[in-house]
Amino acid sequence: MAKTRDENFWEGVRWLGFGATFMFMVFPIFWMVLTSFKVARDAYSTKIIFTPTLNNFIHIFQDPYNFGPLLFNSLIVSFCTVAVAIPAATGAAYAFSRFQFRAKNGLMVGVLSSQFVPPVVVVLPFFILFKNLHLLDTRTALVILNLSFVLPFTVWMVKGFIDALPADIEAAAVVDGCNRFQVIRYVTLPLIMPGVVTSAVFGFIQSWNEFLFALILTNQKAVTLTVGLMGLQTDKGILWEHMAAASMLIMVPIFIISLTIREYFIEGLTMGAVK
Amino acid sequence: MRNQEKYVNWVLLAPALLILMATTLYPFIYSFITSFRHWRLTRSPVPGGFVGFDNYIRAFGDAGFWNSVWVTVVFTVISVLLSMLIGLAIALILERATKLNTMMKSLLIFPFAMAPALKGFSWRFMLNPDYGILDAMIDAVFPFMKDVVWLGEPYWAVFWLAMTEIWGWAPYIALVFIGALGALPRETMNAAKVDGATTFQVFWYITLPQLMPIIVMVGLLKTIFSVKMFDQVVTLTGGGPGRSTETLNYYVYNQGFKFYDMGYASALAYILVTTMFIFAFIYVRFLMKGDQD
């Protein structure tokens, strides 16, 4: 079928839109990447051609910025949050997906709604509690609070993956005399592994990017990377070349892991939200 | 077997429920109680007496509070509408599964996966009147805007704050819509085309109505997350110029952690929670309906 004038017109619009989307999505990131390789003088200009340097990446790990410990804190906090969240979420997701019980709907609504509690509401009481328990400025405090938003999301996400798995597959194992925990361990879990990994990655990213809790609860020992950026604001203004290098430190690991599991990532993200 | 099965679900649920009770239910109740108390953390480490609805009444006479409500409404409307529109446009552009489009879909993950705090800083850098690249681009196209200091003008500051949010969310919304578009039945669209409908007519009369349920869901979800937005206020504008980008969230934060007025901050937080839960309630109703089908 030959293309009509109408179709040709929209084909043109589509290509223009494609270009615009590309610019809009990529440019802010591209500019940060470029700036991270500039010396200070070039960073405060709109130059595209310049002599690149790696000094910014070295400087942020030295005094007075010391991003090394911050990187360590971010890693530990995100890792521990996921290590607690994923087993708990998988259990709950399985129960929601496979069992019928009276309180089920109410509990599911509860889990879902807990995502919508504004973080600032969560942090007020915990600030006081942690103050009394001398847990302010610790990684433990951050892990506990990060669970408040990572856990509900991962329950919902893992549930989506279990829902997609036909229950008949498990029935065969039950007939063979396995109890429920054995079924989960040997049948269900291996089959939903990609989904569990995706949820874990997503939980990791959310913790890694978390800002408000760390801003309020930490000031020295447990400061994470995102809050560390605040330290690059000086009396003379923001040190943009260092800011850009620190941004790379935050962005690049996230970009790499989300690309490696790209397909599941898109599926998992879009599945839970709308059905 | 039967007997054992009976409690398995509770064993599986227990860890998650216990953690959620501790991390969301506990603060939820604690804040509620605190919202009826007088408590300045700077003066006393223990809560003061109950003051009834005083904290809530105070909010209604507080110009700063009303300002933050207004800012939140403007921000939410701009960011929801534009991120949905741009998201839908991107979805229509990338709808067909060509190689190029698949590559572009991977790129869409980047703005979405970027830390919100970083979004604020990166846009602040690009908007700087002296060396910002975006400012330079806009000035080149619209010379009459040369003197506009983007983050120094109240309305522009809110707009750019919304822009950081749109930049991160439009790609996510696009991915959701691409999934939805792929699941639509093709027959009606093809039939309409054979009957001579234009591309726009097919979109407007066939595709769009079919997408409506998803558009509503995404709209609600985005509204909730827009009201929750916090990080970029700190990193893009710091609430300024003046108070023009102080969202309700940010205002609660200031009352609680700058002035350490726990009672008042809790009351404000509860006003925020109530508004959020109206949207959340509708969203959850829609979502659970889908779950039972």
Q: What features would you describe in this structure?
A:
Chain A is an all-alpha fold. Chain A folds into 2 domains: 5-55, no CATH class; 66-274, MetI-like (MetI-like fold, Orthogonal Bundle). Chain A contains 13 helices and 2 strands. Chain A has helices spanning 5-36, 40-43, 55-59, 67-98, 104-114, 119-132, 139-163, 168-175, 180-209, 212-217, 225-228, 240-260, 262-274; strands at residues 233-234, 237-238. A two-stranded antiparallel ribbon of chain A has the order 1-2. In chain A, strand 1 and strand 2 (237-238) form a beta hairpin. Chain A starts with a helix and ends with a helix. Chain B is an all-alpha fold and 293 residues long. Chain B has a single domain (65-260, 276-292), classed as MetI-like (MetI-like fold). Helix content of chain B is 76%, strand content 0%. Chain B is built from 12 helices and no strands. Chain B has helices spanning 2-34, 54-60, 63-93, 99-113, 116-126, 133-141, 154-183, 187-194, 199-228, 231-237, 248-257, 262-292. In chain B, helix 11 crosses helix 12 (262-292). The radius of gyration of chain B is 24 Å and the shape is globular. Chain B starts with a helix and ends with a helix. Classes of the chains: A mainly alpha (275), B mainly alpha (293).
Summarize the structure.
The complex is a heterodimer of chains A (275) and B (293). Chain A is mostly helical and 275 residues long. Chain A is built from 13 helices and 2 strands; from the N terminus they run αααααααααααββαα.
